[in-house]
Design goal:
The chain is an alpha/beta fold. The chain has 10 helices and 15 strands. The longest helix has 15 residues. It binds zinc ion.
């Protein structure tokens, strides 16, 4: 039991306790408990088993599942988990036809209440056209799915670079201290790539050293913060003249620079 407990990394933010649950090869699901209401939400459900094991160790009862997007490695665990109890499944109304049956659909751009917590649904098309992220301004938590990663962003499977840049810009405008819980442990490869387009960024170099230390000691790189991403994520740094120059587009609009950085990452 103590081994299992020590493997659960918990972040406390206001009334929320947030536990990262590694799933499949490199996915993170997140269990979020609101101490005020006792509600427990799972953000994305790659598979049921590790989530059930974590719930057992924590002594928590799952009440809600929030879905960011329709990919199998974010929804395949939902049917097993909902079959075990009274679980409310929440996802985007805009993508409901591709998601498991929703108990409640939410509209991108609107807010809903989860227990006592306000949850803003931010529209982030690009990785998929119906991708949404969940932002809780009270505790300052963002669940970014496959839109924003540590030093990375999602591939453009369905949307355009322009759409993705719009969503990423909205996230970059959240308060710096916002804690970001992302969908995949891609941080090592993201770090290698970041150095190729932002080689003179001292903060990036320091962060890469920290990330290597964390991963070599068996740790996880989630969560991050908006402030850290603004300073070191090469995709958010499309606004920086340094990155624009490095990719051969001095004076270009950030959206154009972003598209080029994304193209280079895809080709890397
Ligand atoms: Zn995905």
């Amino acid at each position: 039991m103590s081994n299992a407990l020590s493997a659960l990394e918990t972040t406390e933010l206001g009334d929320l306790s947030i536990v990262s649950v590694p799933c499949l090869n490199d996915n993170f699901a997140y269990l979020v408990r609101d101490g005020a209401s006792g509600h427990v939400a799972l953000i994305d459900a790659p598979e049921a088993e590790p989530v059930e094991a974590a719930l057992h160790v924590l002594g928590w009862t799952l009440t809600h599942i929030f879905i960011t997007h329709h990919h199998g490695d974010h929804i395949d665990g939902i049917e097993d988990l909902r079959a075990r109890g009274n679980v409310t499944v929440i996802g985007s109304s805009a993508d409901a036809r591709r998601l498991p049956v929703l108990t409640e659909s939410v509209t991108p751009g609107e807010s809903f209440r989860w227990g006592g917590i306000e949850v803003q649904v931010i529209d982030t098309p690009g990785h998929t056209v119906g991708h949404i992220v969940y932002y809780m301004p009270g505790p300052g938590a963002l669940f970014s799915g496959d839109t924003l990663f540590a030093m990375g962003c999602g591939r453009l499977f369905e949307g355009t670079a322009q759409q993705m840049w719009g969503g990423l810009s909205a996230l970059a405008n959240l308060p710096d201290e916002t804690v970001v819980f992302f969908g995949h442990e891609y941080t090592a490869t993201n770090a290698d790539f970041a150095l190729t387009v932002d080689p003179h960024n001292e903060m990036l170099h320091r962060r890469v050293h920290d990330v290597i230390d964390t991963l070599e000691s068996g740790g996880r790189t989630t969560p991050t913060t908006i402030g850290l991403e603004r300073a070191t994520n090469p995709f958010l740094r499309a606004v920086s003249p340094d990155v624009a120059r490095e990719v051969g587009l001095p004076d270009a609009d950030p959206e154009i620079v972003f598209a080029e950085v994304r193209r280079r990452k895809d080709a890397a």
